[in-house]
Amino acid sequence: MSASTPPVYGAVPAPEQKKNWFARHKLLTALLVIVVLAIVGTALSKQSDGKPAATSSSQAADSAASGNAAEGADKKAEAEGDKGDKKDKNDDATVGIGTPVVLGDFEVTVTNVEKGVSHIGNDVLGKDATGQYVIVDVTVKNTGKEAAGFAESEQKLVDTEGRQHSVSGDSLYLGDASMIYEKVNPGNTVTGKLLYDVPADAVPAKLELETGWIHNATVNLQ
């Protein structure tokens, strides 16, 4: 065995090479690498998932809008269909005196038409016509589930010249027969008279009935 070389006294030892920061902190370096990789992976994942998600949301919104539009169109068509059904129940060519017509929850029948009346009321309390009075006798039945009002002011008389006449305010001289406003309970039937003051040469042609602004019917008077 050879003897070790004795140190040379007075010689300067070689400086120890200094390691860099990463070499000296291996644990922290590993943690930093893991964190950076996690951040990059998350960013890439969000970027790849973002567009499909937005597309899916847009498709859902478009689908909902299309569904709402279709539903609205169906409801409109159904409402128009209901109106058409109600109108088809009354045929102007056949509905005349003595034939009931459907007017919403009312069933209205014209029972008589009196023309050429010059005076209503009595000698003490009465009224003379400006032209001639036309008195239309009607019966009104409530076929609905609730009480409803029938107003004479909504009912128009049309003559053979196409002139439309409103009821006369003189109807108060008809006493109990006046139909200024009748509140009819479900299942009940009321009778009354509609009074019109028209020109002396006017010939009644038809009665245009209305209630609630949406229900209409026409009765031929000839």
Automatic annotation (TrEMBL):
Determine if Hydrolase is one of this entry's keywords. no
Return the Low complexity bias intervals. 53-71
**Can you tell which superkingdom this protein's organism belongs to?**
Bacteria
Concerning InterPro entries, the annotation shows:
DUF4352, Immunoprotect_excell_Ig-like
Chain spans, region Disordered:
47-94
Q: Name one Pfam family in it.
A: DUF4352
What are the residue boundaries of the DUF4352 domain, all occurrences included? 96-213
Annotated transmembrane regions: 27-45
List UniProt keywords, sorted A-Z. Membrane, Signal, Transmembrane, Transmembrane helix
Residue ranges with Basic and acidic residues bias:
72-92
Q: From which source organism is this entry?
A: Actinotignum timonense
Name of the protein this chain belongs to:
DUF4352 domain-containing protein
